[in-house]
Structure formats: structure tokens, C-alpha cells
Design brief:
Layout (H helix, E strand, L loop, with lengths): L10 H25 L4 E6 L6 E6 L2 E7 L1 H13 L15 E12 L2 E13 H27 L2 H9 L3 E3 L10 H32 L4 H7 L5 H27 L8 H17 L6 H21 L10 H21 L14
Parallel strand pairs: 1-3
Antiparallel strand pairs: 2-3, 2-6, 4-5
The structure holds zinc ion (ZN).
Length: 348
């Protein structure tokens, strides 16, 4: 059932859903025009499950996000920005505008796994939280667009016999290594397309700096503005992936997504490359800002038990590097698997 946004009573939250749907629809319009695609509809499905999908609908495509997803992501970022250690340059001592506690679903795969979260935010920190939440939600939609553009919807029907690609399957791994490798390669490609599409959002933000005082306060950093914005995109996605991944550890659900740290690593590289195609970028500033942000987010996520710090040992970094090269091999190996349905070409 399609979720009705007008039933949301909280105005800030309703605005978050509206903005996301609008952004999804304008992206759909731009993509249809640029690549001569049939229609792509964007909607929220009424569901408390954390899931998103891309499938076919009539002669076109349907991208769906479950209605609980924006709310959960919104709360993750409200909570993260309740930590004064995250982006400490944005003051946390002003008068709070948000001050509430909520029984938060700490595992997106289990609505009963809850923890009481105290949330207290100043106006500017609340704005920043909402912006970063919006970036993460937008990313989920763009990733679905990535599946559509790469021809994975048709590929999924052809190879897996399924009419839509679900981001989190409640299905155990089949042990079919070939299909699991292929699905991972698809996830990697969908991420690559999503990052390219995300540049439109980066551009919009840079333009908004001149028009909106709040945007300027948060996203403007002189000649380091672009590295600063990219570092915020990068850590927002790290927080998102860390939260989503919880379901996979605890519920043994099957997901073909690579580990959040691995995914964050290659997405960071993809962000740099996509930005450099459009603008001059100071890589050094980006790396140093991104490391700073990553550390702030990491500690907060660990305190919230959304990531397990014990896993991040030195040997672990080696295994991340191994995993990265494996993914790149898979990508090369399976890219042609959807060649007959793809809407885009890849650089050689
Ligand atoms: Zn996917």
C-alpha cells in the first residue's frame, strides 16, 4: 500500500518526506530525459520494515522506499548531532529547539529492539542533522536509480527470477556463489551510478550557500568548501551503511551489500573521482577533513552500539583492502551480465 505523506503530523518530518519525494521525482524526470527511459515512479510503501526496491511497473520502473526508512534515518542523525563532539564547530550550547526522548529502533531489522534515546539539539545542529539525513535518504533513492540505469531490474528477472530488487532480503543466502558474486558486483555498479547522480546535490548545495544563511553556516568553508561538503557526504553515508548493516549481523538476513566500511572506502574514492570530473578539488583537504569527521562519527556510532569498534583491528584493515580488490574484480567480471538491458555506457 502506498504511504500517504499528508498523514504525518510533525511538520519537520513531513517536510523531510516531501523533499525526498520531490527530489526523487525531479531526478526521475532528468534521467528519463537524458537516457530516453520510460517512466520511473517514486513512492513510499506503508511498512515498518527497513527496505527499498527497484522493480518494473507496466512499461516503466518503480522505485519504492518503505515508509519507516526516512523516519529512522532522520532519528539516527538527530541523535548523532546530539553529540557535541560531532562537528564541534557548530555550537551546541545555544537554546535547544529539539528536546525529546524516543524509543529508537536500533536494529532496522527488528522493530522490537529498542533503546531510549535522548535527543537535544540547537536550531543549527537540528538543521545540519536534517540535511545529512536528507543526503543519506537521497542516496538510497539514487542507488535504486543506479540499479535501473544499469539494467539490473531486467537482469534480476532474467538471472534470479524476481520482479524487483530488494535491498534487504529476508531470505537466507542460497549458497549459490555465482549469483551472490553477481549481485555484489551489481551493488558496486549501482553505487558508482548513485555517486555520479549525487553530484547534482553537491552542486545544489554549493549554489544554496549564497542564498541561504543556514546552509552557509554549515557547508561553507572558504576554499575548502568542496572538500568539506564531500567529507560530510562521505561520513553521512558511512553512518547510514553502519546502521543498515545492523540487520545483517543480528538477523542473519541476506544482503548482497558489501560491509559498511568497505562500501564507505570505495564510495569515498568514487566521490573524489566524480567531483574531480566537474570541479577542481583539493584532495589533501578532503582526506584530512574526512578523517576528522570519520573519527567523530565513529566514536558516536560506537557509543550508540550501531557499530562494533572491536572489529576494527589492523588485520581488519587488511581484509578491507582484500575485499576492495575482490569487488573490483567482480565488477569487471559481471559488468557485461546486464549489457543487453543497460541504459548507460561505462568508461573503459
Ligand atoms: Zn542495491
Amino acid at each position: 500500500m502506498i504511504f500517504d505523506i499528508s498523514t504525518i503530523s510533525d511538520p519537520a518530518l513531513k517536510d523531510q518526506y516531501d523533499r525526498l519525494k520531490k527530489r526523487g521525482e525531479s531526478t526521475a524526470g532528468a534521467i528519463q530525459k537524458a537516457y530516453s527511459l520510460p517512466s520511473i515512479s517514486i513512492d513510499f510503501d506503508s511498512s515498518s520494515d527497513f527496505n527499498a526496491s527497484a522493480g518494473s511497473e507496466g512499461k516503466g520502473y518503480a522505485i519504492r522506499l518503505n515508509s519507516a526508512v526516512p523516519l529512522l534515518i532522520y532519528l539516527v542523525f538527530e541523535k548523532l548531532f546530539s553529540f557535541p563532539t560531532i562537528l564541534p564547530e557548530i555550537s551546541s550550547t545555544d537554546e535547544p529547539v529539539s528536546d525529546y526522548s524516543v524509543p529508537f529502533i536500533v536494529d532496522p531489522g527488528d522493530i522490537n529492539a529498542r533503546q531510549e534515546w535522548e535527543i537535544q539539539l540547537t536550531e543549527l545542529r537540528s538543521f545540519t542533522a536534517r540535511m545529512l539525513a536528507d543526503i543519506s535518504m537521497t542516496y538510497i533513492l539514487l542507488h535504486e536509480f543506479g540499479h535501473v540505469l544499469c539494467g539490473h531490474v531486467e537482469g534480476n528477472k532474467h538471472y534470479n527470477g524476481s520482479s524487483k530488487i530488494l535491498e534487504l532480503n529476508a531470505m537466507p543466502s542460497t549458497g549459490d556463489f555465482k549469483s551472490s558474486d553477481r549481485n555484489q558486483a551489481w551493488e558496486y555498479d549501482a553505487d558508482a551510478v548513485a555517486v555520479t547522480l549525487l553530484m547534482r546535490y553537491v552542486e545544489e548545495l554549493m549554489e544554496d550557500i549564497d542564498k541561504n544563511e543556514r546552509t552557509k553556516k554549515v557547508f561553507y568553508k572558504g576554499e575548502d568548501t568542496l572538500p568539506h561538503i564531500l567529507s560530510l557526504f562521505s561520513v553521512s553515508l558511512f553512518a547510514l551503511f553502519s546502521y543498515v548493516r545492523g540487520a545483517r549481523y543480528k538477523l542473519n538476513r541476506y544482503s548482497s551489500h558489501p560491509h559498511p566500511m568497505v562500501r564507505s572506502f570505495y564510495i569515498k574514492d568514487m566521490l573524489v573521482k566524480a567531483a574531480e570530473d566537474l570541479w577542481p578539488l583539493n584532495r589533501k583537504s578532503f582526506i584530512s577533513l574526512q578523517d576528522e569527521r570519520l573519527e567523530e562519527f565513529f566514536l558516536a556510532l560506537e557509543e550508540l552500539e550501531l557499530i562494533d569498534g572491536k572489529r576494527f583491528s589492523e588485520g581488519y584493515m587488511d581484509s578491507i583492502n582484500g575485499e576492495l580488490s575482490r569487488l573490483r574484480e567482480l565488477q569487471a567480471c559481471y559488468r557485461e551480465s546486464c549489457a543487453e538491458w543497460t541504459w548507460i555506457g561505462w568508461e573503459k
